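An instance follows:
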Amino acid sequence: MVTVTPLKIEDYGLIGDGRSCALVGRNGSIDWLCWPRFDSPACFAALLGDGENGHWQLAPDEERGGTPVTVTRSYRNQGMVLETVFETHTGVVAILDFMAIGAAEPTLIRIIEGRRGAVPILNWLVLRFDYGLSVPWVTRLPDNMGISAIAGPSRCVLRCPVALHGEDRHTVSRFIVSEGDQVPFVLTYMDSHGALSQPIDARAALHRTEQFWSDWIGRCTYQGEHASIVRRSLLTLKALIYQPTGGIVAAPTTSLPEELGGGRNWDYRYCWLRDASLTLIAIMAGGYYDEAMAWRDWLQAAVAGSPDQVQIMYGIAGERLLNEWEAGWLPGYEGSKPVRVGNAAAGQLQLDVYGEAIAALHVARQTRLCAITDGWRLQVGLLQHLATIWKEPDEGMWEVRGGRRQFTVSKISCWLAFDRAIRDVEKYGLEAPLEEWKALRQDIHDTVCREAFNADKNSFVQYFGGTGLDAGLLLIPVVGFLPAEDPRVGGTIAAIERELLDEHGFVRRYLPDHVVEGVAGDEGSFIACSFWLVNAYVAQGRMEEAHALFNRLLALCSDLGLLAEEYDATTGRQVGNFPQAFSHLSLINSASILNAGRITTMGAAPLPVL
């Protein structure tokens, strides 16, 4: 009997195929996989529970003398094929994990290679559909070269050349791998009512997959400092893009906690408009204009329709109904409950998304991702609606659940929407009520400067009339709301340095206020916000401090170059959903800014000159 408990978040590696992702532990256990899409129910959910909730262990058999002495891992050829090397007292084996590119059905392949000596291996497969709830009916394949597991509409088929047997509703094999051996395991997802697919040649699939990732990253045009980690972040973003639509998920996981043992656990397997400008800019910084175009097309399709129905997030194909519920049978990562599926924040009013959407489309227009007039009528409709609601309170960019307030960053984003649209009208002669928009832009600017600046703190604050700070205020000089030289901007950055930095100098989003947030507990420092401080330092000309903070942030990356949403300074661990697109987007943008040595304000995010 194999007992599996989740590893530290940073001890997982990511593999993906443009439809879904899996998390592979350094112990050889795959503890998270949703099939066939990012947002489908998980068939391996041990990450949020234990081994009985579904996992796939393939590693040296410790009960038979295969205890690893060292474990090293890396991505082969700088791609997305994960290689984990186990050295034992009797030999060395490597496991190559990847999701096959170009396969007819979603397919996960594991190839174990003997590198030296002979090592006993344990293969322990526990398939549990519906987030660890449903135990499948398992039968042998007609050729006796694997098994089929069915539960409801889902079927997984495992093909391998070693003998399999059942132990307590687990599929098990034990065998020896000697130097020169290559043993493939091929797990394929298909509809339970369909015919069995043809077997896949694992070595040919490995070659195709490695070639795909090699060709893709070979197109990267980024040549600045920190190019290696920028490329890894670009590859991570590519793996988080749902290829059929171009939408990018915030993370491939749900309910990894912002506080270990706490209840700040959310489903991030959806597409946030907030990521729009950052995504466009980060992908273009690497020279990937096709992916940027696909994301821009996804964005425009998602927000199409009635302007008063714009949401803060959508499903990966543009779905709007993201009902939130709790998987009560899962104990949560390290006891962090509840485990949530869906995200009720989709129904919130967050005014900042209008600014982010308009700014992203502005960037697309500036960089010729689209025709000048493409989507303009849609943007005019969004702005006409925003003109009627910008004074309303909202839930803010951090999606609080304690009620609506007049959040400062939301108002600045409203200003951003009109500012970028005005720039487009003036530059391209687009038809619009220009004078009306200019008056609104000035009204919003005056309101923020009057209502959101606290003279006693010499700082802008989180919401009108409040005294707390918000790391989102670091974006004020970046988006051009006020110049970095303005004393109010300097005062705000100084106040954030005083009040929101943890003991390592990383930035918290804000100090916890359970009345405002509507949830209890604490959280780690927000990695993206720390990159925003890097950008603010650049805006102020504080280059030495900017480089120093950036390097400290790079040190938070796992050995595979991956980042979660937050960092817990107390435990020294990554927390939150993983890997987090927002963190990697922010890393790429800050690297680009440091490389350029200055900031322009083309979009809702910092951008080096293109």
Remarks:
- The domain at 9-194 is CATH 2.70.98.40 (Beta-galactosidase; Chain A, domain 5).
- The chain has two domains: 9-194, 219-596.
- Residues 602-610 have pLDDT under 50 and may be disordered.
